[in-house]
Amino acid sequence: MLYDKVCREDVLALAYGQVKANGGAAGIDHQTFAHIEGRIGVDRFLGELQGKLLAKRYRPQPVRRVYIPKADGSKRPLGIPVIEDRVVQAAVKLVIEPLFEADFKDFSYGFRPRKSAHHALREIYKWINFGCVHVVDADLKSYFDTIPHDKLLLSVRSRVIDRSIVKLIGMWLTAGVMEEMQVRKETTGTPQGGVISPLLANLYLNWLDRFWEKKAFGKRPHDAHIVRYADDFVILCSKEPEAYLDEARKVLDRLGLTLNAQKTRIVDVRSEPFDFLGHRFAVQPSKRDGKMRTYYYPAPKAMAAVKKKIREVVRTGQHRDLPVLIKEQVNPILRGWGNYFKTGNSRLHLKSIANYTMWTLCIMLRKKHKKRSKGWRDHPPSWFYDYHGLFKLPSLSVTGEETSRYGRLVAP
Q1: What CA–CA distance (Å, rounded) separates 7 from 123?
Q2: Cis ω for the linkage preceding 221 (within 30 of 0)
Q3: Using CA atoms in the order 380, 385, 391, 395, what is the torsion angle rounded to 10 degrees?
């Protein structure tokens, strides 16, 4: 039985370690990892949780609703479960994920073991170079909030026959959301922020992937390829993109999902770029030989977003010592952003963000010390890099031939 494995001491301990490593805010009970480890003790916490699971007395609490800003100015709703619920969700995921992985398709890359956004980007790059220049840039409308619970649980039962596991998942789906001191029960959706939500989201859209493979759309004569990262996907084809968009829409309609008409579009990448996972894809003349080549690099929204973050941490941290500000606040932003965007044709973009960072720091120092000069001569790049430990963002860029910049990634 799968439920017995979830209740095992070693599985719960591993799940707790994963949840702690991911961090995150406290749920509606305001309990933190520091409180658990300092006041309760991890062994006691996990022991009591194991007892609840074995006695079938475990009941999830409502998730805490928070909103995070999106690049377009709107806000994305997140649901933060309490730590106890996150641990149980992680334990269930450890047990059932291999069952679903056996059924997932190779062109699904989001939140899966040994797959990443970089793999998806390279796959898009490959198909464009193979002549699939007609792109359906699809966007699902409020995907995580509109998944029908009944159909999602049917998807779970397609692989999991243990009723206790299915019951746990059903309880998480209907636990409700705490917002403005009131609990609201949901009849659709799986809240973003839960440990198991990405797996469930992948599972539900796997019906689209299975349909695509069954119809052999990725083979000749169709040559229409899906690249999916969770709820974001594109269809790349050599002809008739409208027909393949209609096929995808039929499946999504049966699943109770809706394409966002305003954001879903069809483009010919040879004449118009498109954005995916924060990157912009474009086919344009090479500056070296003038030949038309495929490029991908940070999208303008991604550039603007990281600049905004840098401005904010410098503005709010100007009272701190410069080395501390750089080490604790600026460098983590540069390192995280750079590691995500370092592939493809991002060298000039990395250099641009590095220069912007130094410019922002110079402006801060000028105001802080009331100097008339802008500070370029007093604070050259070597002054930031060598004396204050500023992370060298341009050093991350991958240069050289196409095989080194676009070559197949080796799965860790």
Answers
A1: 39
A2: yes
A3: 80
Cβ-Cβ contacts under 8 Å for 361 (sequence gap 6 or more): 314, 322, 326, 330, 379, 384, 390
Q: Rounded to whole angstroms, how far apart are CA atoms 207 and 311?
A: 43
Specify the residue for token string 């992370």: 391
Peptide linkage before 412 cis (omega within 30 of 0): no
- 196-205 pLDDT, tens digit each: 999 999 999 9
Rounded to 5°, the CA angle 367-368-374 comes to: 40
pLDDT band at 75, cuts 50/70/90?
A: confident
Q: How far is CA 220 from the centre of its chain?
A: 32
Instruction: Give the type of residue at 270.
Output: R
Rounded to an integer, what distance in angstroms lies between the CA atom of residue 337 and that of residue 342? 8
Q: How many whole angstroms separate alpha carbon 376 and alpha carbon 18?
A: 45
How far is the C-alpha of 228 from the C-alpha of 205, rounded, in Å?
9
Yes or no: say if 187 and 234 are a contact pair by the CB < 8 Å rule: no
Residue 404: the pLDDT is: 59
Report the 10 Å Cβ neighbour count for 318. Answer: 15
Both tokens of 56, joined, read 């079938």
% the chain with pLDDT above 90:
81
Give the CA count within 13 Å in the CB-facing half-sphere of 163: 1
**Kind and range of the H or E run holding 297:** strand 292-298
Going by their DSSP bridges, the two strands 182-184 and 224-229 should be labelled as: unpaired
Residue-wise pLDDT tens digits, 33-43: 999 999 999 99
Q: Name residue 278's amino acid.
A: G
Q: How distant, in Å, are the alpha carbons of 29, 62, 141, 147, 211 from that of 254? A: 38, 29, 15, 12, 12
> How many whole angstroms separate alpha carbon 300 and alpha carbon 201?
28
DSSP 100: H
First to last CA, the chain: 30
Q: What is the DSSP string of 311-345?
A: HHHHHHTTTS-HHHHIIIIIHHHHHHHHHHH-SSS
pLDDT higher than 60, residue 411: no
Q: Using CA atoms, how far apart are residues 299 and 296, in angstroms rounded to an integer?
A: 9
Alpha carbons 247 and 59: distance in angstroms, whole number: 41
Nearest CA among 100, 98, 99, 104 for reference residue 212: 104
Q: How confident is the model at residue 378 (pLDDT cuts 50, 70, 90)?
A: confident
Q: Give the strand pairing for 279-285 and 292-298.
A: antiparallel
* Residue 406, helix vs strand vs coil: helix
